[in-house]
Amino acid sequence: MSDLEAARRAVDGGATVIQWRLKDVPQLDAVERGRATRSLCARHGVPFVVNDDIEAALMLGADGVHLGRADAGAERAHDHGLLLGRSASGVEEARAVSDADYIGAGPVWATPSKDDADPPIGRDGLAAICAAVDVPVVAIGGIDASNAADCIRAGAVGVAVIRAAADAAAVRRAVDAAL
Q1: Which of 21, 24, 64, 137 is within CB 3.0–4.6 Å of 83 for a Cys-Cys bond?
Q2: What is the pLDDT of residue 159?
Q3: CB neighbours (10 Å) of residue 24?
Q4: In degrees rounded to 5, what are phi and psi of residue 22?
Q5: What is the pLDDT of residues 29-61, one digit of tens each?
Q6: Pairing verdict, β 48-51 and 137-140
Q7: CATH at 17
């Protein structure tokens, strides 16, 4: 399935944000491949966030950028009016993030989508992060329709999925049922 088709399925299934995440792809290729997805998101009123690359986010006219713990550029993102997401895998990390508009917390469960992922934090770890910070928390890592509602009940405002994007409608139903 193409990147665009995956995004289309996610949007049709009720995704509220699309994050453009292409690892190990040259920046210009990521931007070129991202144009159609950015357009899709704009047509449907779905915010478009670029992973790890402020310059690509600016080139694509993205709504935001998600930066990892070690990634620089938060000030530049804010200067350009980009929504800023940060990653955290524990309470102390989450509390240390003072520049984020939201935190991507996880991995909640084991995930095959990221080879260098931290150990899973589980539902209790997610709940602890949600309780410790004043910004919205999005759960990430190993999430699908079978456990998305657990993340919402733990305090997350949303869930991020990669493998389950093709079944976004089922994930959306699970999240809605928990609200």
Answers
A1: 64
A2: 92
A3: 5
A4: -120, 105
A5: 999 999 999 999 999 999 999 999 999 999 999
A6: unpaired
A7: 3.20.20.70
39 is catalytic: no
The residue range of the domain holding 168 is: 3-178
Residue matched to tokens 């000030």 = 75
Catalytic residue check, 114: yes
Res. 166 pLDDT band, cuts 50 70 90: low
Question: pTM to 2 decimals?
Answer: 0.88
Catalytic residue among 9, 33, 114, 173: 114
Looking up tokens 């657990």, which residue turns up?
150
Dist CA 16 CA 126 (whole Å): 20
Residue position matching structure tokens 């980009």 = 82
Structural domains of the chain, count: 1
Give me the catalytic one of 86, 87, 89, 123: 87
* Torsion angle (degrees, nearest 10) of CA 175, 99, 38, 89: -50
CA dist 62 and 59 (Å) reads: 8
